[in-house]
Design a protein that fits this description.
This protein has 199 residues and is α+β, with helices and mostly antiparallel strands. It has 7 helices and 9 strands; from the N terminus they run E-E-E-H-H-E-E-E-H-E-H-E-E-H-H-H. A hairpin with a 6-residue loop joins strand 1 and strand 2 (20-27). The longest helix is centred in the C-terminal third of the chain and has 16 residues, at 183-198.
Length: 199
């Protein structure tokens, strides 16, 4: 299967889950973005490394890097290789100079390790076509821990999603969510549209 390279293009507070963050990965040579919900600890670990901040004591991912380097192990790349029931599966491709080993990892941990080893992040076409969101234009903006706007939610959204909206209404809301860079909301709308196509 052909691998597709991704970059980190966004990290912001989750709009619906308290204590969670939306990590947005962007297709390097395309217009699709892949939003992934991660925990606050992993979001902090990613943001600290991207901003080149130095914590007073090593974080868990820093310890992993120090441990690996002590034994001449490098992480060559990260692959988000599967998506099952809304959960992304990832693996680290590691090498000690003699053999290459694949290690299963949560996607949030894999990305936190990727930024420390400065290695590339990949996924496959079937994941991007299933869970990716197409954007207009080529602007990639890093959203550093921004507060989401206090948006007024409609009664429909408060009562369990978008299932009562028509396809046209959903597509309109999807376009608006993308324009406002509300990727988590866009992902929920995308999931509802995909569910309708499958049924």
């Amino acid at each position: 299967m052909k691998k597709i390279e991704l970059d980190i293009v966004g990290l912001s507070y989750s709009q619906t889950q308290s204590g969670a963050y939306a990590l947005v990965l962007g297709e390097v040579s395309g217009r699709r973005r892949l939003p992934i919900i991660i925990g606050s600890f992993e979001a902090q670990a990613i943001a600290i490394e991207i901003e080149k901040m130095v914590p007073t004591r090593p974080l868990t991912h820093d310890l992993f890097k120090s441990f690996a380097q002590s034994y001449q192990i490098s992480v060559q790349e990260i692959i988000i290789y599967n998506l099952v029931d809304g959960i992304f599966y990832s693996k680290l491709i590691c090498n000690d100079g003699k053999k290459t080993v694949e290690i299963d990892a949560r996607t949030s941990d894999a990305i936190a390790i990727a930024v420390r080893f400065e290695c590339k992040i990949f996924t496959y076409e079937f994941i991007l076509s299933t869970a990716g969101i197409v954007i207009e234009g080529n602007d990639f903006v890093y959203l550093e821990n921004i507060n989401e706007p206090q948006e007024e939610k409609t009664a429909i959204e408060n009562t369990g999603g978008f299932s009562t909206l028509s396809d046209e209404e959903l597509k309109s809301k999807l376009k608006l969510a993308l324009e406002e860079e509300m990727y988590e909301k866009a992902a929920k709308i995308r999931d509802e549209l995909n569910r309708r196509k499958a049924s």
